[in-house]
Fold these 3 entries.
Entry 1:
Amino acid sequence: MLLEYLAKRTFQLLLIVFVAVSINFVIPRLLPGDPVEAALQRKIAISGTVSADVEAVANLEREKFGLNKPVWQQYLDYWWNLFHLDLSTSLVDFPMTVTSMIAAAIPWTATLLGVATLVAFSIGSVLGALLAWPRSPPIIRILVPGLMVVSSVPFFLLGLVLIFLFVVVIPVFPPGGGFDPVSVRGFNLATVIDMVYHALLPAISLVLGSAGFWALGMRSLMVSVLGEDYITFAEAKGLPPSRIFLWYGMRNALLPQVTSLAIALGSIVSGTVLVEAIFNYPGLGGLLFAAITGKDYFVIQGIVVILILTLAVALFIVDAIYPLLDPRIRYQ
């Protein structure tokens, strides 16, 4: 039964990826105008002259993607390039490939946003469960509502407030960037400390901006779980309160939270683009923001493909571990 369950989820994964990637092909082509011409005209407006490399980019991209070909042929070429891991070249930063640009940005985003999301999830889930637990200390009922108020502030606005407080008023952190541009980077402790130092402020804005969301969701789930009969039975057996809280309460309330965590991790870039842009962080969010403002058509399309794949894989992993979290799923 477990193998059948995984086979169904694998089929759903492939179907979701196919439909989403196809939509990613269709939507940009519904927009009026030629993206290559748009990038070329923007380049001309900035420089005042037609650069030879821009002309080469325009000719290359028209020939590569066959913009004059029938749509069905463009669609087949699109899938052929994806299967060969070819996301084309950047219109703005020619001759850099989109794959190399994304590969350089992914470690920054995975480190910053991934760790910040997991920290916010852990802190928020524990605080939300304690808020619903009758035996929790009074300080929890003061701390968590304040955290929920802070989480109602958008990420980018919270980032601006932190920059004002800890860069302008109290100059503790750097204003932005992922590292000190005048330092020599290498695989050593000094480089790691420098990168962590530059990532602390954007990470704090992400944790403060989302921990209240996780706490609010976990509180609602925990309240519903505490009303179940098995909680009453565990208390009647005389089990320690800590065991009831962790193994009977939080464990069962975490299932919907894990699904939300997978969605948050899979779509981590789309929700925090402005945070990386504000802090000038060299991740996928900053790259996507620069591509949108520069109308770099193929960079945008490549990043969206990465978002589709990461979200689909994250949901698949959650579906795969659900039978381990809740044995009832194995038999259904």
Entry 2:
Amino acid sequence: MRYLAFDIECCDGKHICEFGYVIADDKFKILEKDIILINPESRFDLAERSGSKGLNLFFTKNQYYGSLPFTTYYNTIKALLEYPDQIVMGHALKSDAEFLRAACERYRLPHINFSFFDSQKAYSTYANINYSISLEDAANAMSIEKPEHLHKSDDDALLSLRLIRAMCQNSGIDFSLFADLYPRAFGRSKDGEICYKGDSLPEMLEALEKTPELLSRAQRKRCIKEFCLYLASVGATVKSRLSGKKYCFGQAFEENCTKKALFLMYLMRQHGSNYNPKVTDNDLFVATDDEISNAQAGKGRIAAAYRKKSHGGRIKIMSFAELYTLLNVTEDMLKQMMLPSLEENWKQNIKALVPSTGDTASTIGDVLKAKGINLS
């Protein structure tokens, strides 16, 4: 078993100009450290973006432009990342995986597939913080010796490796045990899809059923978005006043009542309604009693719905009580429903909802069948 830590620098936040890496054994002894300079074949734009400081890269533009393009080093980078019996490591690796995906797609090369352990994700849980911390700040907090240069990809890769080693040492355990404590720091990049452990729709639906408190705000938003892809496979079976309508809920409802929102989205899809988060394009906005009572001071989607209505737009602001009547469901019925269990490859093989074999709970399909609606 070996560890490979890597880091990528870009000329403009997208196009790769450096790939730096460090290889170590399972005791964190450095075996190899190197850097690949890449001609990004794009202009440099390192100015301040989105409130972040502009970068100062180690090498000159001429050195980057004097190097060969990504296609020359593709096989080398692919072999490094796909090496067997290895754990890939780094800090905020989702971004680096996205850079690699963009480069592969730009040059029409097969995607590079690898799993990884993210020191940023691990450190947030280790330090009990609810935000993403930079590699430099994490190293400072842990009093870790920093390499001579920052934003030099091989040195940043080395620092991420040192951060993981320091967390293991402070915990008094080796990496194999440490990794078991931080499963959500694991992620993967496969066939162009990049996600962390617990971020796929099947995993998020399972968490909503068993441990909803583990889902972050961002994951709940992704759950709503990805469930819409799943609903694309579900056909309408009921003709009603909801048929052909586009709708959405308020953000607070989706965040605080995600499971209920998904049930309602499925039932509304059965009535031929389609979820759309853009209020101004919708026919319906389903509002909570609190949103209706405080409409004048409302913000977000409810405010957009009332603005559209006040300007003569065709949109109905509907209460949940009214929606339940149209769907012919009750709160008790919603509490009995269970979310679908989807296969890992749900995007390629979307399945119909499978009735539960449990005695006390039912899938959405069970409830609808009990009401005389044939899902087939």
Entry 3:
Amino acid sequence: MEANIIVVGLGPGSKEHLSLGAWDIIRNADNLFLRTTNHPVVEWFDENGIDYRSFDEYYDKCSSFEKVYKSIANSILTETKSGTVVFAVPGHPLVAEKSVEIIMELARQKQISVKVIPGISFVDLICTYLGKGIDNRPVLVDGLKLETWKPDLTSGYIIYQVFDRLIAADVKIELLEYYPPEFMVQVIRAVGISDMERIESVPLYKIDRF
């Protein structure tokens, strides 16, 4: 059965991280949507004449990320009335992608079929840099929901969705409840984007100074 929605992972950064399967679907899509154009591979799409629409405006119109993701999901499902929809997101569609999670739940309720085309996630690249295998990967933690999280101090964690200095300050305050100020952490920015990537080891109290 042909999928009504095809969700494609764009990988974490450059076009080299985009799979051939994903690229084949994208270049042949009649109805392509991007969650955001804020991704390095989009410039390559433009160079190759790929026609797409994005949901960037939703980030300005909606008052929270939760509302952004719900609005995107509802729009994608509405578009299926006109045919198969290809929805492309950064990284891997099933790793820290709330919009995809909502789409899949709504599609299940409405008996709309969804196919997922995997992509390399930011977690894959971070674990590669840290030398971590699949058996000892750090646990993913949403940086916007730390108030509900209590760490196991013997485990490693990747805290994502730290979009700006203000969020980084909130993360720091929460972590200082459990770790000493001099506790060393890795700050990783724009992983997989060669001209923007930054990886540094710093004490916890400095993480909001970047």
